[in-house]
Specification:
The complex is a heterodimer of chains A (about 210) and B (about 625). Chain A is α+β, with helices and mostly antiparallel strands. Chain A has three helices and eight strands. By secondary structure, chain B is an all-alpha fold. Among the domains of chain B are: about 140 residues, Tetratricopeptide repeat domain (Serine Threonine Protein Phosphatase 5, Tetratricopeptide repeat, Alpha Horseshoe); about 220 residues. The chains are: A alpha+beta (about 210), B mainly alpha (about 625).
Chain lengths: ~210, ~625
């Protein structure tokens, strides 16, 4: 009766060899079913053909490499367009960029920032938890990118959020700066002042 | 399991580099201030920390091109490699890492970068490249990463059929308990493949009896018991196989195969009635499972062995009908896949806004062909191919979005040109009406006149108009008196003139210095105004000639990007189609494999049925001679 051996070897090959790829790298956690073609599974189990995914087939590799190439070109095009946009809309001689950074955040949980330049509100930004978290991890947000004439200007920033003891907290910071012929970068910095158990809000003028 | 390791790993890879951007000087307030070295690098991290790798890499490449990462060049390049890796761009990531890691990177950074690159290459089936990368990792690495690295290396060997190498690599390996279980399982598998069942039993049995509540390890335990049970069955050791197969959980994914095996163990021991219990239970399950399909043959086989050939024939007939119906279902599914909509149906409910290499399709849509595709989904090749297809679609949507931006830029440039064309005639009129050279000459003359007044002390020259009028009248009177020197009637007049002229002169002299200073200040202001006007005139002239060039340059760049975009869209469409056909072929191949297996079972059932009928026919004459 060869039925027994045929069936056993089918399952055997599948069960053993499917197991070999289990160490945290198997795909999708989809159920692994027997799949060795019966026609090739009549051999002894020890010689059963490998059911584990083998190395990538040439077709897959060729396609994969072409996909990689086109993806890289799309990324490159995105970059070129990003640079074009900045040079077209915010040329260096008039460009002003305002960034927000946050350090530690023990005494302040950021909700929103309002930016006024020369008494005109240019940005009012409400933060998601994910964005506030990205700031805490060391990310710096470009909150505003615009154009200003050469000369003297004033920037006022208002920060709202939860301060010490979970209280609503709103503070402002001001800077007078001179816009020259090059791009101007300003950093709104939120830091913890441990000695006073209070957050501190400052503005740094990047020359 | 993949996601947290990869993301955590990338962050860890960055951590030492990022620490270098912070100010390490002690802070009087107690906490070290977080000093940003390059604002634009922080901006890149802002998106990176939100897992928005596409925006992050765009900004990073732009900042590099614009030369804005002067202080963070090294870590930015490392992050770029990590971002490429996260986006599945392993070739580019490999190129960056190879260039970067050969040099000054620390051992910890180097180890992690090679490890993740090796892992992605393994996932994509680039086994040789994966092994090369993983072998670059030194032992100075976290135990869990080290364990995974060893396991990946062993799996590469198994996938390449290098069982001896795998056995050698795993035999003396010790690591964290869960990884040790995987190692022992893989070692057992490699030993069975080498025909060393005696050695394999020790390892597989240990995994098969481990105490755990972790679902992943419970599943591994089931697999170990299943593998060992069938290995023993194959070695004609059914009595030992049975209790091992009974360890497999009845509600786990391997229960069908275990039920089949338990039946075979009973059958091998001659206990056909007992074998019918698991096999009948199995027969009630979904026919899609190959173990269930086999039970359609084993149940009548057992009945036949028990001498119940009538029931056996009935079950074989039923099996033939069931296989026939299943075969038709598979044919229908193959037809539907050939219509070319499989991938779009698979991705119908997918969230399309993220792009990460660890993405995997977790659920199958309600569709007739879905039930046959579970096995296919378990294969790396299909999952990675599907991921590629999904990414191609993402890129195509991205280009569609950018195309709208380009149209806006075109409009903007048109508007600028229009405004320029309107303003130029007015500017030209103003420029033509303004003789800056004449104004400059006038200023020089004016300054010379002031100098002359000062030199000659012409106090009256700086008087008010009224004073100058009075002074002129006095001068006329003086001239008249000078023309009539002998007239005695004018004596009083002469005295009056002398007095009035003296008073007037005294007044003019008193304010002369202040007035002179004011005049000189006016000259200076005039000079400054003239310089400013000249500057503006230069700017106007530059703008007049520069704007068309600028607009033209920008227009050319926009046009070039649009052309690249068109060409990329064509490539994306062609590759999507090829990827679709490739995956479609894989799916059809899988379905045909299942159909072929069912057909073989069907032939087997017909053969056994014929044998029963033959036997029945040949026995009849004996019963009724």
């Amino acid at each position: 009766m060869n039925l027994k051996f045929r069936v056993v070897s089918i399952i055997m090959g599948a069960a053993l060899l499917a197991g070999a790829s289990a160490a945290g790298a198997s795909a999708a956690g989809a159920p692994v079913a027997a799949g060795v073609p019966a026609a090739t599974a009549t051999a002894a189990p020890a010689a059963a053909p490998a059911e584990t995914p083998a190395a990538a087939t040439p077709d897959f590799k060729t396609l994969d490499q072409e996909v990689q190439g086109v993806k890289k070109d799309v990324i490159e095009l995105n970059k070129d367009l990003f640079v074009l946009e900045e040079e077209l809309l915010f040329p260096a001689n008039t460009q002003v960029a305002v960034y927000v950074s946050m350090d530690v955040g023990t005494f302040f949980a950021l909700d929103s920032v309002t930016v006024k330049i020369d008494n005109k509100e240019v940005k009012n930004y409400l933060y998601t938890a994910r964005e506030a978290d990205a700031l805490l991890k060391g990310g710096v947000q470009q909150i505003y990118l615009g154009n200003l004439k050469v000369g003297k200007h004033e920037l006022v920033a208002f920060f709202t959020g939860k301060g010490p003891m979970e209280r609503e907290y709103k503070r402002g910071a001001t800077i007078n700066f001179t816009k020259g012929v090059g791009a101007k970068y300003l950093e709104l910095k939120i830091t913890d002042k441990v000695s006073k158990h209070q957050p501190e809000f400052t503005i740094k003028d990047w020359e | 399991m993949l996601r947290p390791i990869v993301l955590g790993g990338l962050l860890l890879t960055l951590a030492p580099a990022f620490a270098a951007t912070k100010n390490v000087k002690p802070d009087p307030n107690g906490l070290p201030p977080h000093e940003v070295m390059d604002l634009q690098y922080g901006d890149v991290l802002f998106y990176f920390f939100q897992d928005d790798y596409f925006d992050s890499i765009t900004r990073l490449l732009a900042a590099q091109e614009l030369g804005r990462l002067r202080h963070t060049e090294g870590e930015a390049e490392l992050l770029l490699g990590g971002l490429y890796l996260s986006l599945g761009e392993h070739v580019e990531a490999g190129r960056i890492f190879e260039a970067l890691l050969a040099g000054k990177a620390s051992e910890a950074v180097r180890n992690k970068a090679w490890f993740y690159l090796g892992k992605v290459w393994y996932q994509r089936g680039y086994l040789q490249e994966s092994e090369r990368a993983l072998r670059q990792v030194s032992d100075q690495i976290q135990p869990r990463i080290s364990a995974e690295r060893y396991m990946l290396l062993a799996q590469i060997m198994l996938r390449q059929g290098r069982d001896d190498d795998a056995v050698a690599a795993l035999s003396n390996w010790h690591g964290p308990p869960d990884w040790t279980a995987y190692a022992q399982f893989n070692l057992g598998v490699a030993l069975v493949r080498k025909g060393r069942l005696g050695d394999a039993v020790r390892y597989l049995d240990r995994v098969g009896q481990m105490a755990t509540a972790n679902e992943e390890l419970l599943s591994l335990r089931d697999k170990a018991n299943l593998a060992l049970g069938f290995a023993l069955l194959q070695a004609q050791r059914a009595a030992e196989a049975r209790p091992i197969l009974e360890r497999v959980r009845l509600d786990g994914p391997y229960s069908s195969k275990a039920l089949l095996g338990v039946g075979w163990a009973d059958s091998a021991l001659g206990e056909f009635k007992r074998a019918l219990v698991p096999w009948m239970a199995l027969r009630k399950r979904d026919l899609l499972d190959s173990a269930v399909q086999e039970s359609y043959l084993t149940v009548p086989y057992a009945f036949n062995q028990l001498g119940a050939s009538g029931q056996a024939a009935e079950y074989y007939n039923s099996a033939i009908d069931a296989f026939d119906a299943e075969s038709k279902h598979i044919d229908e599914s193959i037809e539907q896949i050939r219509e070319g909509k499989l991938l779009d149906r698979l991705l119908k409910d997918d969230k399309k806004d993220t792009l990460t290499w660890y993405w995997q399709l977790k659920t199958l849509p309600e569709a007739p062909e879905s039930r046959y595709l579970y096995q296919l989904l378990a294969s790396n090749e299909f999952q990675e191919g599907l991921k590629n297809y999904r990414e191609l679609k993402f890129m195509s949507r991205n280009l569609d979005d950018l195309r709208q931006d380009l149209s806006a830029y075109d409009d903007m440039l048109d508007t600028r040109q229009h405004a320029y064309d309107e303003r130029v005639p007015k500017a030209d009129r103003v420029m033509a009406a303004t003789d800056l050279d004449a104004l400059t000459r006038q200023r020089v003359d004016f300054e010379s006149r002031i100098n002359e007044i000062e030199k000659r002390s012409e106090v009256a020259a700086l008087g008010t108009p009224e004073e100058q009028k009075t002074w002129a009248r006095l001068k006329r009177v003086e001239d008249y008196l000078a023309a009539h020197p002998e007239d005695p009637d004018l004596t009083d007049m002469r005295e009056k003139l002398r007095l009035e002229k003296g008073v007037m002169y005294w007044r003019l002299s008193e304010s002369f210095k202040a007035r002179l200073w004011n005049e000189r200040r006016s000259v200076k202001e005039l000079e400054a105004s003239l310089v400013e006007t000249q500057k503006r005139a230069v700017l106007v002239r530059q703008a007049r000639s520069g704007v068309p060039t600028n607009n033209g340059e920008f227009g050319a760049r926009v046009a070039a990007i649009r052309a690249r975009m068109d060409q990329l869209q064509q490539r994306l469409a062609a590759l999507s189609e090829r990827q679709n056909r490739f995956l479609q072929a894989l799916a059809i191949e899988e379905l045909e494999r299942q159909k072929q297996r069912i057909e073989i079972y069907q032939i087997q059932a017909r053969f056994e049925l014929a044998a029963i009928y033959d036997k029945a026919t040949s026995e009849k004459p004996k019963a009724h001679p």
